Structures
1.
Amino acid sequence: MGILRVRTIRERLLTGTMAGGVALAALAVMPVVLAPTTALAQSQTGGLRIAVTGSDNQPIAGATVVVSSPSSLVSRTAVTDAEGRVRVTGLDPATNYTVSVDAPNYSNFSASNVAIVSGRDLSVGYSLADRSGATDLGDIVVTGTSLAAIDTTSATVSTILTLETVESLPTGRSYQSYLQLVPGTKPGNNPSSRSGVNYSDVGGAVGSSTDNLYYLDGVDVTDPVSGTFGANFNSEIIQEQQVLVGAIPAEYAGGSGLISRVITKSGSNEWHGSANYYFQNDTLVQEDYHNNSGGFSTYDAAVTLGGPILKDRLWFFGSYQKKNREDEVLDPTTGEVRRTVEQDSEYSFGKLTWQVNEENRLSASFFNDPYETTGSSSATVLNNRDTRRVQGGDNYKIDYTGVFDDLTVNAYWFRHEGEISDYAADTSITENVIYASAAGSTLAQRSLGGAGGDTIRNRDRDEYGLNAEYFLETGFGTHTFKAGYTFTENSTMIDSSVPNPDRYTSLAAQYSGTTFATAVSSAPAWTARPIVAGDMTRLITGITANATALAAVDTNRDGVVTSAEVNALTFTNTADSPYGNVALYRVNRVATGAYEVKSEGQSVYLQDTWTLDKLTVNAGARAEKWTHFDSNGEEIANFDWEIAPRLSVVYDLFGDGRSKVFGYAGRYYDPVRNNMTDFAGGLTGPVDEEQINVAGEWVTFRTRGGASTPDALFSPNTKTPYTDEFLIGYSTTFRSDIGFSATVTRRQTRDIMEDFDLALYSDPSCTAEDCGVNGYAYPGSFFYLPYSYFGYDSAPNSNYVIGTLPGGERNYTGLELTLTKYKTDNWFGQISYTYNDADGNTNSDSNADYQGDLIFLDPRAPNASGPQPGNIEHQFKAYAGYEFDWGLELAGVFNWNSGYLYTPAQPVGGRYFAPTADPYEFGGVTDTWYLPGYIGSETAPSYWTMDVKATYTVDMPFGKTELFLDVFNLFNKQSATGVESRLAGSGVYDYQEANSWVSPRRAVLGARYSF
């Protein structure tokens, strides 16, 4: 029981009178609908701050308040203090709470459909009529009600999604799809939000962010390697999904992307269940104008069941979902069927909740998400390069929560066992063939042989945590203190096997006689460049060690190989190519084996929310520490405690809970993921040798993997990347059911991480004459980084060093406007506009990219800065739904965006970079610098989509039946959504030719029975 003794919340009642009845000022008495709002805590429960007055606006002391719901195992009873106020906490999130108020000499009052949101203390106010004044029950006047509730104690910008709302709208049936309903999220399955990176140099991929965090019942289930979502589950287990996009409090890591928090159902005191089936095939889809997809069929079936094992004590909830899809993948040129692909998914979930007594609760849950696909559904993947995938795993959690008056404590343990494995359909020798763009080569000509081999990956996580919240009232306002500790261990096991140890990249036969200088040049706009000028030093070392190669290259016979001699090297050998092309480069695997790397993280946070009258200050800090271990179990990096301060100020403009202004300043750290642990720690796994063909000899110039020369080391001076955020906002309500919000956000990302070739940047013996002219830094040149910059006295024994990118930055400024119509008079809706301005000089995001391997890519290099590729400058979103009284509900979703920014690109080692100029000197270094005006210079087509849904509900003698019809792309506008960015084309699409489109109009039929 939470009893408040002294004034704890400011006056925010909207007075009301009711002759002969009850007057209600309800700031949060509503079904929760989709709306930008605020969230305070990572807690899985929420609370209410209740103020009770009489019809004369005087506070009622000693009123008994009872808060209960059939969806919660506990009800809370509290008594108002001298100022008529009380705080009730430890309530499960639900939209069907009842608040009952019993006060002497006043009419009994009961409000239904009160919403409880996890991590928030919503404020509600009730005005009771004096029993002696009751005259005419028909003379009822209610004034000042507001369903558009605002939490005037928080600056956090978020959206609350309930299953009821998202299922009334045309969306995909997954928590990832629901994210598209949130203002400002960009298209994609791991959608970028605001400043979140939406682009990767690797393959020029757009539409997947590695900056998001995904929580399930308070546990981080983000993939520790990829930074994307790490678990799938049946969407019908969702009790509540909150999506945080700005002004993130100290409870959370991250913040440069969105944070998705899902709280699952727990059953109830009554048995509830459902069974549904959704179906779609090619007869429900319009013709695809672009030969992107052929015939297909899909179904999605699920069941849920929950109820009491022991009423008021022990509840159960479970679900099972099976998804299947079969696709005909078409050749985009001929339209013929290339292959048939089948996907199977099964999602199971089970949860037991034991309310030991009023104060203590224990829960245990399990879910798994096995998934398998027989191949790629992408039309641009050839059959010989296809792979099948097996992924998914098991997840276990035990959770304890105790509520003791003003103190709430929570402890949990979680284990995730996951797999993501790929198996090649064709294991013949791989050869990628290089053409000049003018040759007009096809993808098939460029891609000979199979996909290589198989890769088995296990990604496991063990985590435990402890959180506490304490409410304190003083004579100078109230304090809500929150603190927590989390320990996490992430392990990554990789077993990569190749049936053929050699994988080739060769020049097409017509380019026999090409020199090394031409092969590494950007002038022919090659379709690939596996070797670059920055490899010169290693090439000279390798050639010098091989007698045959030395004799062929050392044309003046002085025993010393120069860069000029290497540049003059010609490639003519076809005997060493598996398919008769000109041998240039290969990767030779000399050792195999499985290996495992690990990381361990600790985090601590402390936060105080202080409220005094109209003012709330939320001050907190989060400290994080991460340690990484190699495959021998030895520590390879220790990122010591980094402190991230978070501060927000909120002011209730008029003291009535209807309008607020707020500001925020805070820092978010982006801990190094396990992909870099793998890069630096794989000492016992496979070993690859990179080789160049010289006079019929394969000359090794770099060894990747193994303990003799580690592929990478974490430098002692490597910093943890971070993003600073500054935000101001305004929120208000109109009438009783309309809310408006506006925010302006500024974010700055710094200390960006990259891997470096120290032979390129840090060789103290280099001079302008022997290094600067070949694209290498030397002491005194602008780009030179001494060993001390990385924390070394001399050159370390590794191919690369992971360090902090000097001058690397990303900057973001955004404006977001949202207008929400809450559900009254049978309808609801929302419109939002987001403006995103993003620029920078790097796309690196906890991955081993090339900006430390080639000086012309250095962030400080000329023409390296520009608009951020992947950014979408303008977005407009709208949705609405109307429910008729006779069982039919109609809803629609409209989305428009201005198209993503991209860079006209030339591929280098699988990365997409802007074109470069002929060599010239800058900062003492001669290199092929970026041409001006290319970074983020082009914009993909703008496009819009309109989706609609009809739901018809039939009440049954026991339960109800719902029939669904979703129609996506209602007007069948198959607009281009992306274009080919490579100047040489892809072998399927030419430069700037559309290569992705809105899917044709398609319908999905569904039915559900529930009770």
2.
Amino acid sequence: MNTIYKHTIRRIFGCVLLSTLPLGVMAQNVRVIKSDGTIKMYDGSKQNIKVMPVPTVNTNEKVKAGSTLYDNLQALGNYTTYLRLIDSFDGIQRAFKNELTDDEFEYMGSIDTLTVFAPNDEAFARFFAHNAWTDGQGNAISSYEQLSGSQRFSLICMSYIPGFVTANNLHVNENVKGNLRLYTWGYDRQFNLVPYKHTGGTDINTFPPDDNSNIDYAKELNQHIMDGVWIGYGTVGDNTGALAYRGGTMIWNDDYWQYNGLSHDDLVFIGAADTEGSEHIKIGNAHITQPNQRCKNGYLHLVDEVVVPQPNLMCALAQARWGGKCSLASSLVQRFNYLKYDPDYAYYEEQIFNDGDSAMTVRNSLLDRVVTTSQTPAIILPTDEALKAFLLATDNPLWQFGINQDNYYDMLMSLPREVLQPFVKEWFRTSFTDVLPSRYSNMRSAKGHQLLAGVTTPEAYKLAVQQVITAADGIIVVVDAVPNAEDLRNELTFVKLAGRVAGAALTANDRYEGERRTSPFSTDYQREMHNKSFTMFVPTDEGLKQYGLVDPMSMASNNRVSWRYWSLTPDSISSNGTCQIAVAARAYRYDYNKVRNTETDRPLSAMYSSNANENCANVNYGPTKRQLLTDMLDQHIVLQDVNSLLNTQRHWYLSRSGMPIYMKEHTNTNIVVNGGMQIDLNEKDVADKHDCTLQFVGQNSTGTSVFIDRPMQPTTQNVYQRLQSNDAFSMFFDCANALNGAYDLKNQLFDIETSEALNRKYTIFADFSGSYARYGNANTMLVNFFHNFNYTIFVPTNEGMQKAIAEGLPTIESIEQFVEESLDGNGQLPDDKREQAQARYLTLLNFLKYHFCDKSYFLEPDLESGDTEQTTTACIDASNLQALTADINSGNGMLMVRDASNRYKAVKPDLANIIARDAEFNNDPTRARYILSASNVVLHGIDNADYLLFDNTLNGDFTRAWRTPSAARKFVKKYGK
């Protein structure tokens, strides 16, 4: 069998597809075939809902069960045009005559039967009188003789499917599920490509391929297409054509979908059923008038019209741009088109537009997201009038930039593609059932809000629908409203008000789907920002470019030569990839004794950079860029309305992730805010001290964007460093730090525990080396608990620690001394002495842990009245696995803690509001690229030489915990086991 002939058979038989298209949630129907040939359908409650007999005798007496399909069509008498169509293709003719060769039978997968949807001569007469087809000279097709070979091939492919399928099986066959697709690989038109933007230096229409190599030409062209490619009719150049059209149609079954919860009106709405109501199965534009005429080699289903192939969604979108009610929306959607190599087309050498090695199809990245093998997608597009009205509305941020009747198209099309993506992607729906009137209440965006604002009922939705375009692989619904309008309004606030970097970070999840490590972007942020009032402090693009963000991973090193800051600028994604963020980053040397300024500072080598096309999950410094942007969003979003932040007695607030924000000034006319890093710098004698000041305010749908001149950042100091560097906390730090060094003691006292437990359960800090190391700042250790939380440490000063020790609080030294003195003659520690030593150790450990309290609490000197709330501590009662609690009271310019003694202990004002961040890196500080987890911490010194007591039975005398062996045993059971 020669190649072309073999390919013809493959195309005719192997690639005419049956596709299952289940409803999103369907009733569980049961199909029972009885011995008399009757098929009964039952729903989940076993109620009989349909009886459909399978005829044992053909209803058309001219069709004989013992004759072939071809002979029966001849016998019918008025199918001459359809027979001419069959005779145009030798392989198809032999299949209809049941004369397939052994090779053809094997190539068909041992299927030698056909199910045929046959139109009669009257149907063809109507087709030739009314169709939109033209011949090679542009004349309307009015006769069979004018049809090209490609057009004839399209029509024959629309008329049959392989196999032996009755109309009953089209109703209920589990492999069909109510509708199937018929495809044709015939092409009447060719397409040329019109790139929206392309890189300079090369004309995309004359870009030459390498004629002597097997290059992926589509991939090569994509490198030059910066911002989408439109499909256009016209003369196809030698190298830039693409196969954008794959025609076809669908078979719809009114009964099936009504069984599964859709109404007849729903199917009429999308053109899948007739208005007057019919139980006929609809095949594109035709109905079966006489089903199940059995033949020797298949079934004949006689239809009332010629089934005409419809364009696929890609071509339907292109046609909408050339003219119609939604050309503006179609232009936006096609900016997400790209080229793809498709080897299925390589057989048609006459259709290949390069050297035959790389056939191209036009795809759309947004459509790719919703297309599955089991669903029929839908696209909902706004009319030109609706989109224009939205753009020209006075509450649209574009209004501030002079948008008008003359420039609205250019201004819209100038928006970066990455800005439009989160807005436009919601127009693409996974299933056509998502856009049906009866399902309108479920037509919501990913953030949960109604897709069409102001359209509140199914009846209003039907009135808003202006057109339904049926394609071979889905439908397009054109509405007199703008889907997902609020998202675009929010995006424009960032983009047009100088916050493109922040906007790109908010929408980065569009390139991060499926990446668990890179998921803290838009899905979480924007869902919270939609459902709650918020204030977002947006660093301007100019501030992020000039001052950048200090790299916390580099600051973790003690080597100041390694310190870096990164300048961030908006960038366009010009290649199709994953884990991309539309931001470019470039590193500079950081020295806080100099004022940051990228205009005068010298950048580091090109190795320290990341562009928009780079994978930010694991490529070079992409993870660092991702971390900086994640921190920026975490630091700058407050889930409170801006008015609740102004003119109040409070100065301290928490961002959505728990990072402290200090509002130095917050009046109606001026806002000055600082993060932990700004607080640190402003307290030092350094050149880089600065505040973040108000530039202007932009309004979003549920919140406010406060634009500031430069970004806030969290502190780079962790708890270990804060305690170690503060002389007033030295005794508390020494006691906590000593637990890590007492490995021999822990092993002696708790030898039944695992090594991990000895390192984590019985310490405050996690070791920075060894099997259970957690990487923090160089030569420091991270706190062992409250990972990824915000919490507060109420730290006893040295005077408070001296008081506790005087009241019997043990230290590691005193416990080691007790153990040494208690050894027997064999150097063993007796059990009763071990229990007393354990009680001593657990007293010290739980004393320290009780000072770590969940949530962040601040001393607000100007706050006249406050609240009392209960907080949990890091100290656990092992007998019931409950955390011990404390009460926090704020107000009257004070912050106080009530401990187990039922007495309040006040915070010392000059040791209050010390900010720390326990950041765990993915590697040691010299090689770290991102943060695995982080806790935001507030430290306060306790006033009046006092401490917090975790167990009231030890009030005034800690030795009660181990005074007798029985007391020690009871204490260990409560706090250790």
3.
Amino acid sequence: MDTNNNNGYIGVDGVFKKISKRYIGVDNNWKDQDFKFIGDNGYWRLIYTKNPIDMSADFYVRYLEGYTLERKNSLNIYGKNLKDYQLVSPRIGGYFELERTASDLFENFASGSFNGSPQVSALMGGKKCMKIETSSDYFELPKDLDARGVFGTTGEKDYNLSNWFFIPSLPTGTDVIPVVSFGDRANGMEIVVSSDGRLQQKIWYNYFSALIQAPANSINVGWNYYVITRTNNVTKIYLKNSTVPVVTSTQSMPAPLSDIPIKVGTSFKYTNTIYLPQTFSTTKTAARYTLSNNDRTIKANAAGAGTARTSNKITPNTGKFYFETRIDNISDGVVWVGLGDAALSQTTAVGIAGWSISSNSRTFNKQTGGGTTWGAGARTFTTGDTIGCVYDSNSGTAIFYKNNVLLGTSTTSITGDVEFMVAGDINTNATIRIKASEWLYPCPDPTAIEMPETTTYNGLFNYSVPGTGYKYVFVSNSPISNLSITKLLKRTDPDVILLNKSNNIQTIISEQWIPSVTNNFITVTIPETIEYGDYEIFVRYFDTVESYRFPLNISEIKLHTEAFTDNFDNSTTLSNNYYAFNRAWGGANGGVVPENVYIKNGELIFRGNGDNYTGTVQGVTREGIKKFHSDAEDPKYSQPWINRVGGCVAYNKRTGFGSYEIDVLIPNQLGCCYAMWTFFYNEIYQGDPRYMQYMGNAYETKEVINVIQSGYTINKIIDDYGIISYGTNYNIGDKFVIDQDASQTVYTCIGIEPSVIYYNPTKVLKAGDTFSKIEITLERSATGNEGLHEQGNLEDGYYITRNHEIDIEFPSHLNGGTLSNPSLSNFKANTWRGELQNWDVATTDPSYWEEYRDNLTPVGFNIADGNYHKLRFDWHPDKVEYYIDGVLKQTNTNSLKGDTIPDISGFFTFGLWFPSSPLAGKPWLVNPQKAWAGGEIGTDGGMKANFDSVEMKVKQFKFTPFTTYSEFQRNEGETYPFNGYINK
């Protein structure tokens, strides 16, 4: 059996034989058949027959949504594992694509959250990402992926952490650029970039950091990516594209506090920092000692217990440290040198206060009594000796030296936070030397460093660096393979490549033109810079692995400028001149399907199946896939969706300014919409290079004041207001100046009458003063932007729709009426450039704006009176006129509130469909309050199209182009050129 389904089989002489080649008749000749239609999820898909699909491959591309496109068209490339192929497998852990959404791609955890005002889908360095705009912006992982969840309650959990980040420049001095963090300097971790180009993982215990860092210059300006793994207490950092770690460490993590979130793009800082000196602490030195020499020397003035401690503290697993103590005087007593338990008081006896050695050759490991003999009593020291100590906080080991000669290891059992400690009998003196610059001898262990300054902080705050960007974040607790590390480091959305057949040049389509990558399809927009011609399009992963190459033609938009009339007296006109619709919009309905459109007796019939329909015609989803009742609480759960299913067609030639008319018989039945409309649609998301152009102000307005005539005279003065008589009406708020005013002060009109202007001068004017007549105008100039507004939200993403559309829709209510109680005596006369209005204010408010106009218009009679009627609109660049049976009923124009007259050509569509805004809590029902096509409320609370089926009949469609407007006509590629069109 041919598992690739490339050839198929045919019966020949009683046996099945493989088809090696297909031919099709073209212009009386047999030609190779390169394409065929196959059934796929109830939808016909056009398949390129020469594609050798290997169904067993880890990924493959099966077909394109279409094989002929225009610039700015979006194209779906369908296949298998198109996203998972580039991801770690299995899908364990959390994976967040910060350039798109806050949700977990793997769907194992709740959504995270964007904090502040980062720009999602910003384009930086050629890649979309979360861009930091202010110092308080960051992304926070969900609560079930907090620090304890990832690193464990003790900090000993195995973990994997990976992230892509963009830096515009390296920091300077001691500044760092934050990447990932949790907690604070008392208990936390931060991954940062240092000024010497290192990726550093700083692990904070009690305000002291342990450091795991990559080599210098391993982080560059631009995009960087890393993987940090911790397995069996070994941490490894991987950078760039290598599966060989750049650093390996046994450094442990702190035990995170509860409910501490992990944050991306930020770290922690403090408003105040206090550094404690590297000396004895005045508060941790017992009272029997006096301090001198800037708190570096102690003298025991009285007998008794107690120790002198340093101001500085060392936390376990933070490395090796060295300090020295010079014995200034021992008379008849003993001196102890070592490390004290930071949790114990300075008044505690030296033997049990920590881990030390004494001048009489004994060791003390938090024990009472006289300690333990060390080195057979030979390891003594006296006045003038210098005792050095190397403390390894990773292993709890203390090694002592006398005058830089090894004495020995006193203990390997030190635990907890410690401080350097000295004690002595009465009249003993000792000086501590903590700074390397003060050491009398070279440190005997080159890996040990001076004891750090202890720092205290207050005023904790998050800080982020504006201009940085963050892309993927992956967190898990299961071991990952080298292949997964490679995918994390190399992972980017797959390259979509166009190969120009005429010159063999490959163009990688920029990520900004790829709005979506899923397992089943990749959506790519054809950039406007691509030349027209024949191409091959294919997908490439990791610079090496490629899909099959499909043929693709990119052609210029063809605008139809010839008149067309169709009387539907030819049964082939449907396939020759129209696209049948097979998709859904408008809510709880079954969309429109080709089965509900047919020609009969010289009429084009559109059938609408209402809520009482019990037949077999099944509705479809937005994607054109057969629809089923999918809500578990729906009484029809899992059954085919057969109700509220309509039918529509679109004229298959692109048209623009002109006159559109259908001669139609509309049934006298509410519950569905009988409509004709032109349609062009763009939907773009943040990161698309057109985004700001679509959103920018469409016009710039500036005030121009011109002196157009002089010699006018003030007639009289009333209450300090000059009354000026002239022949032009000004408006309240208009500005003007007066000749006699040397400062040329701009005055404001505060009242108007015919041929009179009132103004409030800054000086008293008198009758008889002369002045110039002033003309105040507002000049409005186009910017080339669209003036549209954003939709969406920060969590799910923002987008803009550019929807150039003209509608006639029956039925409708009228202004002041009830939306859900419409009449077939009214229609909606709609013009669109976008989908939004400023619903927050009244239309009379100065801040009101609109992207569309919906004029609710009376006809004067019931359009469903059993007769045919001609519905028509005439589309001009600056207006749309609506006619019923040749009588003008409505005119839509642009206004200062916004342009609503479309100017982009599209496809003329007509038919019937079911507006069905879902009912909250029961989304399979229609909300009666929003059912603008009317109907009857059922016993289940939903609005019903209370009929079996209705038919809308069209006996003529006529298009007359307005070719004189060609200079004003825009022709651009739609986002979804194939969306629901059959045979397009």
